[in-house]
Amino acid sequence: MKKRVAVLISGRGSNMTALIEACKDPAYPAEIVAVISNKPDAAGLEVARSHGIEAVAVPQKDYPSRAAHEEAINAALARIAPDVICLAGYMRLMSAEFVGKWEGRMINIHPSLLPLFKGLDSHARVLESGMRVHGCTVHFVTAEMDGGPIIAQGVVPVKPGDTEDTLSARVLKVEHKLYPLALKLVAEGKVRMVNGGIVYSGLIEDDKTSFGAF
């Protein structure tokens, strides 16, 4: 049985699209059953619909508080009954209560080599720091922003003359490879969150060699 996946987005959903493409492989262990956005005009909603995937907007502006909005998101998720939730450019901080409800079943991709450069503007901060490597991280979501246990990382070089645009484009290509890999490992049960940490089990050599640079 393929794991049921719900994807949360706020914009165009390029990582969502990468996951959709990965799920087209009959051997892939997950299927995307719904996409939810906190913004009704998110371009990714139409992308999802074009692939025959249920796409739902739950606009945050329609609710008087974050708690009320999260209650509506939770209601949508309860109806969908996902095994895994993937955040793909979901630009909304979540409460500890919401995260706790889905802990161990919700993953996120962040454009830095965590625990470095949490939060926004990671590409600019990497360039300002003078670091020679950059990348992206898929992690389990916890109450600490970008602080959950790490599932997988991909590394790219920072090249002389890089700008935010050139560096972010290089990282995004890696994100589109890394996220499907990480979801696959989670869906297969090869990576689990246990007591706030990561447990790996049943990894084969192909899995182990997929964690490095692309």
UniProtKB/TrEMBL annotation:
Keywords: Purine biosynthesis, Transferase. One of its GO terms (cellular component) is cytosol. The keyword Transferase applies. (6R)-10-formyltetrahydrofolate binds at residues 66, 108. One of its GO terms (molecular function) is phosphoribosylglycinamide formyltransferase activity. Pathway: Purine metabolism; IMP biosynthesis via de novo pathway; N(2)-formyl-N(1)-(5-phospho-D-ribosyl)glycinamide from N(1)-(5-phospho-D-ribosyl)glycinamide (10-formyl THF route): step 1/1. It catalyses: N(1)-(5-phospho-beta-D-ribosyl)glycinamide + (6R)-10-formyltetrahydrofolate = N(2)-formyl-N(1)-(5-phospho-beta-D-ribosyl)glycinamide + (6S)-5,6,7,8-tetrahydrofolate + H(+). InterPro entries: Formyl_transf_N (IPR002376), Formyl_transf_N_sf (IPR036477), GART (IPR004607), GART_AS (IPR001555). Pfam families: Formyl_trans_N (PF00551). The keyword Transmembrane helix does not apply. Transmembrane segments: none annotated. The record marks 146 as: Raises pKa of active site His. N(1)-(5-phospho-beta-D-ribosyl)glycinamide binds at residues 13-15. Its EC number is 2.1.2.2. It is an enzyme of class 2 (transferase). The active site is at residue 110. GO terms for biological process: 'de novo' IMP biosynthetic process. Residues 3-183 form the Formyl transferase N-terminal domain. Belongs to the GART family. Catalyzes the transfer of a formyl group from 10-formyltetrahydrofolate to 5-phospho-ribosyl-glycinamide (GAR), producing 5-phospho-ribosyl-N-formylglycinamide (FGAR) and tetrahydrofolate. This is Phosphoribosylglycinamide formyltransferase. It comes from Paramesorhizobium deserti. The gene is purN.
